[in-house]
Automatic annotation (TrEMBL):
This is SEC-C domain-containing protein. Coiled coil: none annotated. Residues 137-161 are annotated as: Disordered. Pfam families: SEC-C. InterPro entries: SEC_C_motif.
Length: 171
């Protein structure tokens, strides 16, 4: 058995700098197809908790253990209780009980339209809810700076004086 954790092995394989751009695109294209198939199955019955060892889940979804580790890495932040992905082995008991809103928002954040656009979401959330979740997630990444107070603007403290003669005097 390798000294590296399963997660480190997955990341070494998935982000291998020695692979060409074409090889990486092929790898990720294949992975995203597998990921989509697993999510389709999970979203068919979103309220049922899927549990098992990493190896059992890999077999359940017809994947090798490394691909399952990649999937677990991707879904981990959307779970009700995160799995110990940094230290897991093939025999670690994991759960795929996910928070539906968090999962949808994380898919939007990852720009994974092939996942948040799955038809299974239509049975989980109505169109308005999906639009609201999409907007909330997009807005959460937007930094809004407050309007800068000019020297000659009225002071925001409400004194009626200019900012430079009031609170901005010592600024």
């Amino acid at each position: 058995m390798s000294e590296k954790s399963l997660l480190d092995q997955w990341r070494d394989m998935a982000y291998d700098r020695s692979l060409s751009k074409d090889q990486l695109e092929k790898f990720w294209g294949k992975y995203f197809t597998i990921e989509r198939e697993i999510y389709e199955q999970l979203l068919e019955d979103p309220d049922t908790e899927v549990k098992g060892t990493v190896k059992e889940l890999a077999e359940k979804y017809g994947q090798d253990v490394m691909t399952m580790v990649g999937f677990l890495d991707g879904i981990n932040e959307s779970l009700k209780v995160e799995n110990p992905i940094e230290t897991m082995t093939e025999d670690t008991e994991v759960s795929l009980a996910f928070d539906k809103e968090k999962l949808y928002k994380n898919m939007v954040d990852a720009k994974a339209d092939w996942l948040y656009g799955l038809p299974q979401w239509e049975k989980i959330f109505d169109e308005e809810t999906r639009k609201r979740l999409y907007r909330e997630q997009k807005a959460s990444g937007t930094v809004r700076k407050p309007k800068k107070i000019g020297r000659n603007d009225p002071c925001p403290c409400g004194s009626g004086k200019k900012y430079k003669k009031c609170c901005g005097k010592n600024a």
